[in-house]
Amino acid sequence: MALTIQKRDQLFGVFLTLPGLATLLIIILFPIIFTIITSFYDYTLLNPHHDSFVGLDNYQEVIEEDYIGDSVLITSQFVLSTVLIEFFIGFIIALSLNKVKRFKTVYYVILLAPLMINPVVVGLIWRMILHTELGIFNYLLKLLNINRVNWLGDNDTAFWTIVFVDIWHQVSFMTILLLAGLSALPREPYEAARMDGASSLRCLISITLPLMRPVITVAILLRLIFSIKTFDIIYIMTKGGPGISTDLVSYFIYRSAFFGLDIGRASALSVGLLIIVLFLTFFLYKYMRSLN
Amino acid sequence: MAEIILTNLTKIYSHNIIAVDKIDLKINDGEFMVFLGPSGCGKSTTLRMIAGLETITEGDIIIGDKIVNNVDSAERDLAIVFQNYALYPHMTIKGNLSFGLKLRKLPNAEIEKRVMHTAELLEIKPLLNRKPKELSGGQQQRVALGRALVREPVAFLFDEPLSNLDAKLRASMRTELIKLHRKLNTTTIHVTHDQVEAMTMGERICILHQGKLIQLGTPLDIYNNPVNTFVAGFLGSPPMNLFNTKILPNNDYLNFQISNNLISLPDKEFRTLIKYSGCEVIFGIRPEDLYIEKISKNMIDLEVSVLAVESLGSEAILVANFEDGQEIYAKVERNFQAAYKDKLRIYFDYSKIKIFNKNSTESIKIGSC
Hints:
The complex is a heterodimer.
Chain A: H1 5-38, H2 57-64, H3 68-99, H4 104-116, H5 119-129, H6 136-143, H7 155-183, H8 188-196, H9 200-228, H10 232-237, H11 249-258, H12 263-291
Chain B: E1 4-13, E2 17-27, E3 32-36, H1 43-51, E4 58-63, E5 66-67, E6 78-81, H2 93-103, H3 108-121, H4 137-149, E7 155-159, H5 167-184, E8 187-192, H6 195-201, E9 204-209, E10 212-217, H7 219-224, H8 229-234, E11 241-250, E12 253-258, E13 261-266, H9 271-274, E14 280-285, E15 290-291, E16 299-311, E17 316-321, E18 327-332, E19 343-349, E20 354-357, E21 363-364
Parallel strand pairs in B: 3-8, 3-9, 6-7, 7-8
Antiparallel strand pairs in B: 1-2, 1-4, 4-5, 9-10, 11-12, 11-14, 12-13, 14-20, 15-19, 16-17, 16-19, 17-18, 20-21
């Protein structure tokens, strides 16, 4: 029986998407399912087999784990500080760049440069810049007769140093998103406001911020999702230390898996993190749908 | 309330683009002035300079008795209504109306009174708690108008406020704006590219073209006496028929050859044209001055070939051409019928013709002296 044109179109569509779908399944869905399954087994690197089903034991262990609370707290602090500071700096830069008419491309290139660098490279560069003995930061401090600071090795400074490096690396992402939002705003309400006698600050509060709310929400949510998963710069710069002062959940999982060798427990942790990220993503998706 | 005077007003954008070219104009206190012209003629730029939204390259703007070149928009006490309404999308209608008043730190009771009064005047009271996006285009336009009215400014500036409305709504808003102006008697400048708007609304029309003020006058004056072929061709629908021809004197007559037709005018009634004998001119006649039968003795006829009859319901437009292909439009009565390529004679009263100088495109005065 001959297929209808619609059916044939559908079939052709499926045929075209198959390679992409297959790739996605292999590189994304398979690890996720593997992780979820593993989280219910006593699966260690010493005995890497799915032969001892332990039910929710791994999850129980994770909850009872001594340091997990600290790690969650540190991660929350890290996520909140990076995202909020990035938002404020990004918004200020976006506002000033939005007024720029000449050399816009130059600013864009400068802005995008950090984003284009691999996080591992960012970590290495900053580790050198902040090096206690050889780093240029401490050299400059010495010129000013200020004592050297052990940026990454001191409990008091390590966390904020990591926050600073992450902001340096990611702030342009926020800036670009906000700048795109700002440049898409209609011009007329501002002219109407000018005729109404509104000052620049009043325009910012009464027009820009309310009009930008959707863009701001999306930008912050996107950065939240990325920030929760931060791993690379911790791995390169501090390895969670000193002590546990920069021990983000992602690094905690890594340690459980490859130092503790307990893949089952690390999987349970990963599933937990996945649920949080999924929840945020779902919220983002719902919000973006509601905008239309 | 105030008069607005523009002297030598000029706006030059970068790359030496002249948007507005030395405009001198006085808009009387309480007058409804229309700036009319095709897009890019500088009408909106002129309005925006008056509003203070564009800087002035040269010249002065005087509102009341004060030069306002360097006065901030807010302090000029003008209110503008934009083409796309420019409402504050996140504020309620009430918020939109009261925003400007709050910024001017008016007492709350006064704000409430003015908002209510304006809402009643424009019949938007039931909409006060809604957001702009919940309103139709026509309603949004009323709110935009309300936002201007509520301020009680010295003058209103309307920047093509009706162009985004559908034809029916536009016609009714036109009438309402005129009524409103009669009631408030506030100086108003209305920018439009729509000649119907200009003709029906303006007490005076100012026609702009390529940044220059071309003609200023009452609607009828401009319609009846266009200063050049641009105005003649811009006003009227269909516009004035314009034909290139030459003035050839012959005994007591001035002859014009338009394709296969020779038009002879008695030179004693067209003495002013005699000095243009031999010159190339443009011959103009309005479509409504053309008839399909001879109705008075002063009528001259033209032989044309029918191309189409476009029925508009209340009337029809006869489109025809001469042997050389030049087209001519005539307004005919609604039941008129003719077939394609029918040969037809159409008539006009020679006192209705306009003659323009071909080189300068300017109108040549017609008269017996």
